[in-house]
């Protein structure tokens, strides 16, 4: 559900699209830790910005030391029904079974990723196979603040028009760190009380964008022979935004929506000069990582495709990688400077 209007299509130039894959930052998978943790739930064909999780540098010292693993006994009588960790456990169990009604019941009214709301708009929640993933949950603090919400990537998109200070006045905020077995399965969950009951507000990753984007940049590399990349268009006009009038008609609202999406169009050659079963385009700051390949992952099956990763308009770096088995090679790298 992440950034619903920001569909990141991967189309062939002739509109005959091969199978595409989306990284953990974009795929919202209801039944696995890596996907659940990235944002929340899972609706088909949605993408979001993301970033690599690093060491926690934002601990305010309020960690109450409350921890739980998915193997712990859920019937601990010392916990209330709406204890933050109980809410986490309930979410994972419900997500594994595709139980969106239960997820809705533990979601805060401000949760932008409450699944039944998206189902009502025609999206499909992809739950798990009934098997709950392995995970560790650690309550960093139950005395959090609105600043903890704003520290998450995408918070401006979801809550830019919401006065969180007013909406959450008098309520408690908890910050919970979740880690799965997969090294990528790490995220921060924010819970808030509503009339004393803990509810899930938002899930995401902490924003680690450097103040100077160029700190994350490497030396440019040009695909001079056009073995894979034939064109990069930073001025591509996204076709995936949502018209504010159209949204108002659907919701009955009058507020204007600022849903501007910045995507770079990466056109791939029709005649590959490198054997690769897949091609991925990555942006360093926006964290977009769309990947394209044919259904059987045959070499060159991606030929003629166009990939549309999102990028940061304040400055970003694009890398295009050729993937052959476990080997990944950067074939093109360039920078965007506003």
From TrEMBL:
Q: Which organism is it from?
A: Natronorubrum daqingense
- Record's protein name: Uncharacterized protein
Q: Spell out the residue ranges making up region: Disordered.
A: 1-26, 43-87, 115-137, 205-254
Q: Where is the composition biased (Acidic residues)?
A: 52-82, 117-136, 205-232, 240-254
Superkingdom, taxonomy of origin: Archaea
């Amino acid at each position: 559900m992440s950034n619903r209007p920001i569909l990141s299509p991967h189309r062939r130039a002739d509109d005959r699209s091969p199978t595409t894959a989306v990284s953990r930052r974009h795929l919202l998978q209801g039944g696995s830790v890596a996907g659940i943790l990235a944002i929340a739930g899972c609706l088909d064909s949605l993408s979001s910005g993301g970033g690599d999780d690093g060491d926690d540098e934002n601990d305010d010292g309020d960690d109450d030391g409350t921890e739980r693993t998915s193997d712990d006994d859920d019937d601990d009588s010392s916990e209330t029904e709406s204890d933050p960790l109980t809410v986490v456990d309930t979410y994972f169990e419900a997500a594994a079974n595709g139980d969106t009604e239960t997820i809705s019941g533990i979601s805060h009214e401000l949760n932008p990723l409450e699944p039944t709301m998206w189902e009502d708009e025609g999206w499909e929640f992809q739950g798990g196979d009934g098997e709950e993933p392995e995970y560790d949950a650690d309550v960093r603090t139950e005395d959090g603040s609105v600043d903890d919400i704003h520290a998450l990537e995408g918070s401006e998109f979801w809550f830019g028009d919401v006065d969180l200070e007013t909406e959450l006045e008098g309520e408690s905020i908890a910050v919970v760190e979740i880690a799965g077995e997969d090294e990528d399965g790490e995220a921060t969950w924010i819970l808030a009380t509503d009339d004393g009951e803990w509810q899930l507000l938002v899930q995401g990753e902490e924003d680690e964008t450097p103040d100077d984007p160029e700190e994350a940049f490497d030396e440019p590399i040009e695909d001079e022979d056009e073995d894979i990349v034939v064109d990069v268009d930073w001025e591509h006009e996204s076709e995936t935004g949502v018209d504010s009038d159209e949204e108002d008609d659907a919701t009955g609202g009058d507020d204007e929506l600022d849903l501007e999406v910045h995507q770079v169009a990466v056109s791939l050659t029709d005649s590959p000069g490198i054997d690769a079963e897949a091609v991925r385009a990555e942006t360093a700051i926006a964290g977009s990582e769309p990947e394209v390949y044919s259904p059987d992952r045959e070499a060159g099956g991606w030929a003629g495709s166009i990939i549309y990763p999102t990028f940061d308009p304040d400055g970003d770096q694009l890398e295009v990688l050729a993937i052959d088995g476990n080997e990944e090679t950067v074939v093109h790298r360039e920078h965007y400077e506003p």
